[in-house]
Amino acid sequence: MASEPLPDIGGETASEMDAHIVKVLRHRVGKDERAARQHDWYTASILALRDSIIDAWFASTRRTYDEGGKRVYYLSMEFLIGRLLRDALSNMGMTREFEAALSAHGLDLAQLEELEPDAALGNGGLGRLAACFMESLATLDIPAYGYGIRYVNGMFRQRIDEGWQVELPETWLAHGNPWEFERLESSYRIGFGGEVAADGDHVVWHPAEFVEATAVDTPVVGWRGKRVNTLRLWTASPLDPLKLDAFNAGDHFGALAEQVRAESLVRVLYPADSSPAGQELRLRQEFFFTAASIQDIVRRHVQYEGDIRTLPEKAAIQLNDTHPSVAVAELMRLMVDQHGLEFNEAWEVCKKTISYTNHTLLPEALETWPLPLFERLLPRHMQIIYAINSRILREARKAGCSDEQIAAISLIEESGERRVRMANLAFVGAHSINGVAALHTELMKETVFADLHALYPTRINNKTNGVTPRRWLQQCNPGLTKVIRDAIGHDFLDDAEKLVDLAALAEDSALGERIAEVKRSNKVALAEHIKKTMGIRLDPDALFDVQIKRIHEYKRQLLNLIETVALYDQIRSHPERDWVPRVKIFGGKAAPSYHNAKLVIKLANDIARRVNADPSVGGLLKVVFVPNYNVSLAERIIPAADLSEQISTAGMEASGTGNMKFALNGALTIGTLDGANVEIKDHVGDENIIIFGLTAEEVAAKRADGYNPREVIEGSRELSQALSAIASGVFSPDDPGRYAGLIGGIYDNDWFMCAADFDSYAAAQRSVDARWEDPAGWRTAAIRNIARVGWFSSDRTIAEYAKDIWKVL
After folding, report:
1. Which residue among 550, 598, 779, 788 is the active-site one?
2. Active site includes 550?
3. Could you tell me if residue 9 is inside a domain?
4. Does residue 359 carry a catalytic annotation?
5. Of 107, 246, 277, 685, which sees the most CB atoms within 10 A?
6. What integer pLDDT is reported at residue 255 of this predicted model?
7. What Gene Ontology terms describe where this protein resides (cellular component) (predicted)?
8. Annotation says 339 is catalytic
């Protein structure tokens, strides 16, 4: 079925857009056509496109006020939005006009798009999910604000020096950001410290310090420009930026101390919290953006609706993980202290307004704060948390909870150092708590929230994550998108679940060959990029085996590397076999203070250095660690991947969204039954995914039954040899003991089950080799993956949130 061309919806012809861009270039960039450089045209193009977006933005806002509808407010520490030019052009339906307008001046739109820096507003899956959700909210015509922090330097820019990760500031704002609008009228004083006093019948918090939060807005364009929503990020400034008397007295640093203190709040994403000063900065940072957001929400509601009691009818506040959990206490403070509600009445309003998404089963990732620190920084909020806790614990006692259950439910951790449990606060202060994959949600009920679930058995629900198909298929893989359109029409562009129509054509050899041609073209493009940036030559006809994600022990890049060493050894030991040529591609950042994760990066580079220089393996194995993994790199790598590594220890990955992006682009998944892999398997079919390893139940049982990893290692020749090679310094001759501790951890404990799953993983990889040698069968499986993962669209996820939690659809 031939596809019809999509109508452009931008409203301007190519010649009109040409005139618009030139006018912007002259009057707002200050250049004429002859003097303008590429970066001038880039800025002019964004500003011209922005003019069209602004009109749609204003129209969306007016329509929301006219209709008097309910808004969604999405609070997140991260919004990994990536580059916006291509995304906005595509969603506004203006790509062809811009291409034609710029080509008239000898310019290539694709080259201008490369000039845009990735916005350093996030790190991993949490932030990218928030970005996908914001785009889907606009696509589904749901009024929404995203709230976060305008980080000046992000987490860090990763450079690899001699195989080691080096953290550098991400200077994405060095030349300004043409997408954003500062809103000076939306500024709020955020207090810290001080004391709480009674003033008659009222309680008044007198902070010792204030920081001013000012909104900076970025428009978020939905598909076909249906709606433009707002991403509102907060920047910080002191009330008194310069103490002139101190400056004139020669104390230049002291005169600027408040400026530095305020700006530190928005300087870096996730400052290291291994020191007391780092912990304080993290807590201040989280309260800063959360308090500004809650104050903005309440101000808007009272301004237009008058009565704070009707907040749940007009506002749905979604907390993305535990970082904004203090929103519960801040909303209570505003209602009780400033709007005069009785505590119990305010508590009911709070619970009906707030909902909370949990993203982890790792206890250490469920934030807690030392009670003395929390009480010193936020004394009034501590009082409110104690008041909430007394109600919850009385309720638990009345329900017949045991002392052990009450201790687990309490908002205050009493064993050892007393700490405030932010996940428990979010749970009790919300009417809905959702997991992000079916397995994750069930494990939440059984593990981290077992006692809270027993007390409130109707609150936990599942909302399996999704990704926006606009960025992760249409924009990053236009060749594949065209092939799909030619095969089944363009309905899937508006509804990703219509991709299922492709399943009937899975065994069509002509279609399979066309998709294979696109895949090879994407691999050639990635190989050229890696050759240009890293000097490593890759064979595009090899199997591209990819693991790109945050570096963490539970994600098991180490398992992949151990198997890589075993494969390297096998290729050298058995040159007579017909080995499948394979390129192992790794990418991801390790938290600056995470020693083992940084060692894994070094190990990947050490293995790459040795393997890539070894003529005995020829072109059969290459290893590449791509530095500074970000959204733009993902958009290059994912369309080129043949095999998607989703190999986390079962029961530890909440969902994952990379697994969805890879499958949508025709890669086969090798993975454990963890996170959303379980549901991907259910959708694509057992024969179109490669599953290995222990289940979550088996992992738990092994840990409980006294698992002996040394015995497993000694029983596996390949594993034992690979571990011995790494530990003894074969890949680190400059420092033979470099990996002794890392590998020793597998022998002694193997908490992440690398040894336990190795043989199963290695066998699965050899089954991948066999499948690769059947090109027709591989293509059929790839098509079935593409066809059956449309359900994992963030549009579907957001529609479920909207109907079940927010009640806005």
Report:
1. 550
2. yes
3. no
4. yes
5. 107
6. 65
7. cytoplasm
8. no
